UniProtKB/TrEMBL annotation:
Organism name: Sphingomonas brevis
InterPro entries: RimK-rel_E_lig_ATP-grasp
Domain Alpha-L-glutamate ligase-related protein ATP-grasp: 161-412
Designated name of the protein: Alpha-L-glutamate ligase-related protein ATP-grasp domain-containing protein
Keywords associated with the record: Membrane, Transmembrane, Transmembrane helix
Length: 434
């Protein structure tokens, strides 16, 4: 068991390293264009100028080498990505949307050289469609947000967003409605927080690593009666056996145990068993208050009945900020076969046009939560809407922009978020005013 976990961790580290190298390649056209550009004239240009100035300012020597290597390897990386994703998606897009494969290839070359959009994101952002393609400049990219912009405006930050145990304690101390903790297992020690008599309660449980992202390593254990739990994979364990396993593995993979939350009855049919959550992004405004700038609703499909993350194969639909109404849903989009859905593929329940219950309360929860973490400028909140009201699941200090922009089919850079990011870059002295 330990060897397999170690191998899985090594694979994750390798994948993250490859992603960071890819992000550096994506940034090459941006820094080259900014080197010959005039003074920024709008929020997007200001953001990209800040990114270009900070391209080589990295947190490690390894990342600096990645940045330098990208200047040499970008043609090879781009062509390999073009081959992979055009081969995977080209024919389907041509048949479904009428954009020929040569036109798709020409699009991808042009959009990469202009905006650093690599072939994978050409499909994620639906840039084979005319309207998104006309506004391709407006899409924020992971390479500029995660590697630069969010770091510049969110750090230093002392509030505990990235440690799930400390996050839960911080929410409790600040009166924020969040999913409670039962047990934390780390460094071969158990910290019992919400269970009586130091045993797991007779209810369905949700177990996840303390520091993982994207739903990786999450487990769901349903109470089968008599102190026995059953996993979604069909395994059974007593309370003592489950605790013993957590203790044994806690040195390499610290985990927490929470009660499994269930969606509000009005949206129960939008789930295949996994908890569906709203990802609500908030940003501090010009006066220091928190403002909701984008939101999507995530749903699990298929065999994955544990987590709703879009990077774990789930789907997401845009949520209207004022009315809580859902648009059509889709997966991440780098594989276009699924397309866009008006109904849930497992339950048949309507998605498009559906109104989420307690939406105003969910937005208020996100805003009030940001007040408790006001040292961070931009936060992505995962909020479950339950029969007892909205509940905060976790917060993300480097929120994923793909997850939001894919269902929206438009870029966040041209809206309120772009304005606020530019404001904070100027406020912090990172960029001169327009």
């Amino acid at each position: 068991m330990t060897n397999s976990m170690s191998e899985a961790n090594d694979q994750i580290v390798t994948l993250k390293a490859a992603q960071k190298s890819t992000y550096r390649v994506a940034g090459v056209p941006v820094i080259l264009r900014r080197a010959f550009a005039s003074k920024p004239t709008d929020a997007l240009e200001l953001m990209r100028a800040a990114y270009a100035r900070n391209y080589f300012r990295t947190v490690s020597a390894i990342d600096r080498r990645r940045a330098l290597r990208a200047l040499v390897t970008w043609p090879f990386v781009f062509v390999s990505h073009l081959w992979i994703y055009a081969r995977l998606n080209g024919r389907i897009v041509a048949d479904r949307y009428g954009r020929s494969i040569p036109a798709q290839v020409a699009d991808q070359v042009r959009l990469y050289l202009r905006h650093g959009i690599l072939p994978r994101w050409y499909y994620i952002f639906s840039l084979y469609e005319e309207r998104p393609r006309r506004h391709a400049r407006d899409f924020l990219n992971r390479f500029e947000t995660k590697l630069a912009i969010f770091r510049l405006i969110n750090w230093p930050g002392t509030s505990p967003l990235n440690d799930k145990a400390k996050f839960a304690a911080h929410c409790l101390a600040n009166g924020i409605d969040s999913v409670p903790l039962i047990l934390i297992a780390r460094d071969r020690q158990l910290d019992w927080l919400g269970a009586e008599k130091h045993q797991l309660p007779p209810r369905d449980l949700f177990i996840k690593p303390l520091n993982a992202r994207g739903g990786k390593g999450a487990e769901r254990w349903d109470h089968a009666g008599g102190g026995v739990f059953t996993s979604t994979g069909g395994k059974t364990a007593s309370s003592a056996e489950l605790v013993a396993r957590l203790l044994e593995e806690s040195e390499s993979i610290p985990r927490l145990v929470q009660p499994r939350m269930v969606n509000h009855p009005a949206i129960a049919d939008l789930s295949n068993g996994a908890l569906s959550t709203a990802r609500i992004m908030t940003c501090l405004d010009e006066k220091g208050g928190a403002e909701v700038v984008a939101a999507v609703f995530r749903m699990a499909i298929g065999r994955n009945t544990v987590v709703d993350n879009i990077h774990a194969g789930g789907i997401a639909a845009e949520v209207g900020l004022t009315d809580g109404k859902l648009g059509p849903a889709s997966n991440l989009g780098d594989d276009v076969r699924l397309g866009w859905l008006s109904t849930h593929p497992d339950t048949g329940a309507a998605i498009e046009g559906r109104t989420l219950p307690l939406w105003r309360e969910a937005c208020l929860l996100a805003v009030s939560a940001h007040k408790a973490f006001s040292d961070r400028t931009v936060i992505g909140w995962d909020i479950a809407i339950t029969a007892d009201g909205p509940m905060l699941v976790e917060g993300n200090s480097g929120p994923d922009v793909d997850l939001l922009q894919r269902p929206m089919r438009r870029g966040l850079g041209a809206g309120r978020l772009g304005e606020l990011i530019a404001f904070h870059l100027v406020k912090r002295g990172i960029s001169p005013p327009l």
